[in-house]
TrEMBL record:
It holds the Pfam family HrcA. PANTHER family: HEAT-INDUCIBLE TRANSCRIPTION REPRESSOR HRCA (PTHR34824). Negative regulator of class I heat shock genes (grpE-dnaK-dnaJ and groELS operons). Prevents heat-shock induction of these operons. Residues 110-332 form the Heat-inducible transcription repressor HrcA C-terminal domain. GO terms for molecular function: DNA binding. Belongs to the HrcA family. InterPro entries: GAF-like_dom_sf (IPR029016), HrcA (IPR002571), HrcA_C (IPR021153), WH-like_DNA-bd_sf (IPR036388), WH_DNA-bd_sf (IPR036390), WHTH_HrcA_DNA-bd (IPR005104). It comes from Sphingomonas montanisoli. Residues 8-76 form the Winged helix-turn-helix transcription repressor HrcA DNA-binding domain. One of its GO terms (biological process) is negative regulation of DNA-templated transcription. This is Heat-inducible transcription repressor HrcA. Keywords: Repressor, Stress response, Transcription, Transcription regulation.
Length: 347
């Protein structure tokens, strides 16, 4: 059932509905007429408020649990509130600083995305999710920085401006000049190729003895490219952090819903497909409860926003999963800010 537009509700009905939703989202407890009379300056008696609540229930916007005389919003009511009545609260300076600090720290992309998602999870008290860019990096520059006689750091700069590094084991007795030679070869001969393409070309050229490299440098190039190729094959489509935030040991009645939600989260491919709809859009997506079949059993909500790469194209999605009783006014702008921070990191 789709609810009526906000404009079709009377001023009295809108105010009662707003108070019910905001109070329920804050407390998780159905709201009674006496509570509304105390919270809102409506100059209405509890009896009049009950009549308005009954009208809202008949419209499908409120419902009354059988264990309580109070009312709580239906999923239709939550959608009406989120789309037409919610007044968002921008993240605090401390929240913005925490998100930006992690997004700007750098490091391998997956680690930065996972850590930023963990920060978002902690701030929102939900499970943080991030859809990793699916495209394999395209090489622009490659270098080897020695750590010791046995190890070096392989540093890769992608065409999207991303910088990643991995520790590689060096072939025995390799001279420092071979590290420079190997890095120059990759940067000059393999730039513009994906990691998989670069490795295939390298193997072909070495096999035909066409690579202008000595054996030590050739072995180092192969090791460096192999690390990222292997990583690329195992890159997660979806990273989830903070599932423990979904569990409230003191709420025994909610444990079955949480168990169902955790089972749903385990099916990461299904969630990734859900987030693809946000990836293909231009802005924030909010899925409430049974609006999406994946979370129809647990009655959970997903708030997700796309982030962009260096060329302005959407490359991934970041967001949160939690119960339908979320503080949407606070979390929606927080997710949007995190998407902007990841966009700045990617560019």
């Amino acid at each position: 059932m789709s609810g009526p537009p906000v404009t079709e509700l009377s001023t009295r009905a809108r105010e009662v509905f707003r108070v019910v939703v905001e109070s329920y989202l804050g407390s998780g407890v159905p709201v009674g007429s006496r509570t509304i009379a105390k919270l809102a300056a409506l100059n209405l008696s509890p009896a009049s408020i009950r009549n308005v609540m009954q009208d809202l229930e008949e419209l499908g916007l409120l419902e009354a649990p059988h264990t309580s005389a109070g009312r709580m919003p239906t999923q239709t009511g939550l959608r009406l509130f989120v789309d037409g009545m919610m007044q968002t609260a921008e993240p605090s300076a401390e929240e913005r600083a925490a998100i930006e600090a992690r997004a700007a720290r750098g490091g391998p992309i997956e680690e930065a995305l996972a850590a930023t998602s963990a920060v978002l999870s902690g701030l929102s008290a939900c499970a943080g999710i991030v859809l990793v860019p699916p495209n394999e990096p395209v090489l622009r520059q490659f270098s080897f920085v020695p750590l010791s006689r046995e190890q070096a750091v392989a540093v890769m700069v992608g065409h999207d401006g991303s910088v990643e590094n991995r520790v590689v084991d060096l072939p025995p007795d390799i001279p420092p000049s071979a590290l420079v030679e190997a890095g120059n070869f990759i940067s000059e001969r393999l730039a513009g190729l994906t990691l998989g393409e670069a490795r295939l070309r390298m193997e072909a050229e070495i096999g035909r003895e066409r690579a202008a490299l000595d054996k030590a440098a050739a072995a180092l190039v192969e090791r460096g490219l192999a690390i990222w190729s292997q990583d690329g094959a195992s890159r997660p489509v979806l990273i989830v952090r903070g599932q423990a935030n979904l569990i409230d040991p003191g709420d025994a009645a909610d444990l079955e819903r949480v168990r169902q939600l955790l089972d749903e989260i385990e099916g990461k491919e299904e969630i990734a497909r859900l987030l693809e709809s946000a990836r293909s859009g231009q802005g924030m997506k909010i899925f409430i409860g049974a609006e999406n079949k994946l979370f129809s059993l647990s009655g959970s909500s997903v708030i997700a926003a796309p982030y962009r790469g260096i060329d302005g194209r959407v490359v991934g999605v970041v967001g949160v999963i939690g119960p339908t009783r979320l503080n949407y006014a606070r979390i929606v702008p927080m997710v949007d800010f995190t998407a902007q921070a990841l966009t700045r990191m990617m560019t």
